[in-house]
Write a structure and sequence with these properties.
alpha/beta
Length: 298
């Protein structure tokens, strides 16, 4: 059984910047989450997971956010937003909701798949190969709604897996890979915290706590792990961070502000995260935290 698991959730370029700030702030306090035995990345979290696994530190990525991180040109229209919401909110059944979203993604008139791969190449900043560490990236089958986990043994390239995990329905086309079409790994769950089940210590960072539709939140998934006896901390944005985000999670002009907000909020999370991450596994309390300053749950 692997000891530590780091779960990195989706949240667009803004959420990625905030997560980087959170990790840099925790690292400054002596908590290096990048050394996790297993890293599970979803959507933007897959980009960050890949770059961390390539050897970049949280501090280096934080400086990059302040100085000008790799940028992509993505415009979200009101029509795309409406179609996304119509599909995701059209059923109270989680499986039907994600299948509706998949059908909308497959039918949408979007940019070609090549545009997705080009954008991901920019975001990865030169990272191309699967790392030697255990990196797991999520995608959702656009036809069936099934969640899949990709790693170095899956027979796909790292950029392909990241592209599949980041293919936001209706905004970007589902990505063709391994004979199937894949959409954003956060379509069912923005962080997929439940995939960390079986690990002794878990920290999850979820810039967007819940997917649109009748799906469990990252906090709820963390609570389920805690009920099973897993020490877990789930970090989500506090009010100041949400204010720094603005309304558009792809507004790259706000990345620096989001990164600073994450680093500031990290100071409120240090004690809870340290209790989970640094204590001997057999002696740890079971804890969960939401929004940085939230009350730990036992």
């Amino acid at each position: 059984m692997a000891d530590t698991a780091l779960v990195l959730g989706g949240g667009g370029t803004i959420g990625l910047a905030w997560t980087v700030g959170m990790m840099a702030g925790l690292a400054e306090a002596g908590i290096d989450l990048s050394c996790a035995d297993v890293t599970i990345g979803t959507s933007a979290g897959s980009v960050l997971g890949a770059r961390l696994a390539s050897g970049l530190s949280a501090e280096e990525l934080y400086a990059e956010q302040l100085d000008g991180a790799p940028k992509i040109d993505v415009e979200v229209t009101l029509g795309q937003t409406a179609r996304f919401l119509w599909a995701a909110l059209g059923s109270r059944d989680p499986q039907r909701s994600v299948q509706r979203l998949g059908r909308a993604a497959l039918a949408a008139d979007t940019a070609p798949e090549s545009a997705v791969h080009e954008a991901i190449a920019v975001l990865l900043g030169g990272v191309r190969d699967w790392p030697g560490s255990d990196l797991r990236l999520t995608g959702v089958d656009a036809r069936t709604g099934a969640l899949e986990v990709f790693d170095a043994t899956s027979g796909v390239t790292l950029p392909e897996a990241v592209a599949a995990s980041c293919a936001v329905p209706v905004l970007w086309p589902p990505v063709s890979m391994a004979g199937r079409r894949w959409m954003d790994g956060g379509s069912r769950s923005t962080a997929n915290v439940h995939l960390a089940r079986g690990h002794r210590r878990v920290v999850a960072i979820a810039p967007i706590p819940k997917a649109v539709g009748p799906h469990p939140s990252a906090t709820e998934q963390g609570a389920e792990l805690a009920e099973d006896g897993t020490p877990v901390a789930v970090l989500t944005p506090d009010r100041a961070s949400r204010k720094a985000f603005g309304r558009n999670m792809l507004d790259q002009t706000r990345c620096a502000a989001a990164a600073r907000a994450g680093r500031t909020q990290a100071a409120e999370c240090v004690d809870t995260v340290r209790a989970v991450w640094n204590a001997p596994a057999e002696d740890q309390p079971v804890r969960q935290e939401a929004r940085g300053g939230g009350r730990p749950a036992r």
